[in-house]
Amino acid sequence: xxxxxxxxxxxxxxxxxxxxxxxxxxxxxxxxxxxxxxxxxxxxxxxxxxxxxxxxxxxxxxxxxx
Length: 66
Hints:
Radius of gyration: 13 Å
Number of strands: 3
Strand order of the largest sheet: 1-2-3
Number of helices: 1
Structural class: alpha+beta
């Protein structure tokens, strides 16, 4: 159930970015897999703009996250 909840949260975030960042200044990428020392790592969302690079990790939970 947690996997489905996480997937829904990532899709909602991607949709929000699509609605909010719909101009030529922003390019969004989702679910990026990168090689690492221990295998691979995953980035939920990457936003590339003239203002910088933004990496967004999505959590679909309530309460505090440490």
